[in-house]
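User: Before I run my own analysis I want an independent prediction to cross-check against. Here's the chain; please return only the structure tokens and, at the end, one sentence I can use as a sanity check.
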Amino acid sequence: MKAIRVHQFGPPSVMKLEEVPDPRRQDLQTQAVVRVRAAGVNPVDTYVRAGSYGVQLPMPFIPGSELAGEVIEGPDEWLGQRVFALGTTGPRLTGCYAELAVCNTTDLHVLPDAYSFSQGAAVPVSYGTAWRALFDRGHAQPGQTVLVHGASGGVGTAAAQLASSRGCRVYGTASTDKGKKLAIQCGCIEVLDHKSPGYIDDLMALTQGRGFDLVIEMLASTNLDHDLDLVASGGTIVVVGSRGRIEIDPRKTMAKECNVTGVALWAGGPTALARAFAGISASLKTGSIQPIVGVELPLSTADKAHDLVMQEGSFGKIVLLT
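Assistant: Structure tokens:
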């Protein structure tokens, strides 16, 4: 099969398209081989590739941790099934920037026919992270006011859809007109440009000065101190992403008795993941969520995908097609 492999940590150019042996199942009862049709691209993939994520992988390795495709080998109940999956990267199994990947059947989820493989590849990390941020860590409830920073990106569009479908009043930020329109389509009532002067005051005005019950933060290294101004008394800020350190005024947390917490998709363990994907699968069956694919690229251009995923103003999900 063809696959992207990394022989040494470094810039995107270290990823090479190579011909490699087909992966094999180690356990015929609990694993499956998936014909990968689309693989999702995430910022964490770039950290792993660069060697800055703190995970030591055996060289060479195939990057990627989410996919959509068809089961071509595995237990009878999965054969021929359209699926999306999370958890193929690194020494556990095989990465998904490839034509074939081995997955544990516990990580497979049915992809309804109404969704494309690209949409399926956009589900695991973005929707899994958004679900855990909203409901596991943020304890979002119907009727609450939610702010999604970066509402036009992969996790942002997922969070807007999931929160609005659960009865939350959702607002967002985005830096482009295209991104604003997309966030509105995903359920945001109003979307402001987080680069505009005075946007903090404008956001507060949307809540009549009360603030937001829940803030979903994609770039804490830039926004966290501002989020402490935006969150309501007793509210919660959930940090989904950050690219560095930030200085904040702790007194802001005291005055509002607010909560600042973080989320990482895998950190909750198998039980939290199972709970999240049960909810996401139910939403896919009813059609209440629609994964947004911003860019589709061939597998051979994984380096370009890694450049794009780190740029500001992201729009939906970036996927690699095999």
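Sanity check: The radius of gyration is 20 Å.
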